Protein: NAD-dependent epimerase/dehydratase
Organism: Neobacillus massiliamazoniensis
Amino acid sequence: MVSHIFVTGCAGFIGFHLSKRLLDEGVHVLGIDNINNYYDMSLKNDRLNILTKYRNFCFIRGSIENLELLESLFDQYDINIVVNLAAQAGVRYSLENPHAYIQSNLVGFANILDCCKKHQIKHLIYASSSSVYGDNKQIPFSVGDRVDHPISLYAATKKANELMAYTYSHLYNLPTTGLRLFTVYGPWGRPDMAAFKFANAILRQQPIEVYNHGNMKRDFTYIDDVIESIFRLIQKDPPTESFAFYKIYNIGNHQPVQLNYFIQVLEEQLGKKAVVKLLPLQPGDVLETYADIEELVNDINFKPKTPIEEGISKFVSWFKQYNKTP
C-alpha cells in the first residue's frame, strides 16, 4: 500500500500550497476539505482544480468533525504523517459565529488526535497561530512566553489545540509539532485577509477600513517561506527526545511591518491610491506581532526572509492575473 501524507484543509490557502509542494516532490497526498462558504467557494475550487490534475493526489470532500469519515480514511489509506491545516479561521468572525470555531477547531482537532493515536502516526504537524500570544508585551514573541490570556475565541481554540496536542504527546508518545503562524500572505491568499481585501478595494476605488489608524505592526510572512518551513519539518525527524514528543515553533518573517507601509507598498504595486477609512482598534486585535524564530532556524536550517516589497509584488502579479485585471 502506498504511503500518504494526510493534509487537512487542502483547498485552503496554506493547505493548497503545501499539497502542491508535496505533489511536485512526488509525495502521495490524501487531502480533505469541506469547501465551506466562509469565503468565496470558487477560489477554493480553483485551488482544488490545480491539485486534482496530479495523479498522486486523492481528494475527499468532508469535515474533520466527522469522526466516522476520518476513521474510515485512516483505515483505508496508509497514512504516516498528518498535517492538520483545517480550521475555522479569522479573529473577527469568531465574535460573530463562535460555534463554528468550537466544532472545527476543537471537535475536529480532537478527532484528528484520536485517529493519530489509534493508528500510531509517525508525526502530527498542526497549525496554531500567533494569535495565542494575545496582547503580549514582550517583543519579540517567544515560544517560551506565557500564553494564558487569548483575546479572541479563535486564539483560545488555537491555544486549546496546543494543550490537547501536549496531552496526547504526553500520554501516548504521539509526536506533535505546532506551528504558530504569523500573518501569512501571498498568491491564492484568503479574501478576508489584508492583502486580498485591500487590493480588491483599491482597484475598485472603494474605501479600505484601516483599524487603529494604521498604527499597528504585523510580522507579515510570505507563503513560500511558510511552505519551505513546513516541508523541512516534515522531512525532519519528529520530536522524540527522551519524554518530549511535543514541539512548538514560531513561523514568521522576524521583521514587523507598519500597516500603513504595507498599504503604501500595495498602492505602488497596483498603481492606484487607496481610499482610506480610519477606524479605532477592533476587539480581538493586537498592536504588534513579532516572531522570535531562533529555534526554527536552528532546527531546520532555514530562515523566512522574503521582504514585504517582493512578497507584495508577487501577490499583486497573481491577483491581477487571477482577476483578469490589466
Remarks:
- The radius of gyration is 19 Å.
- Residues 83 and 125 are 5 Å apart (CA to CA).
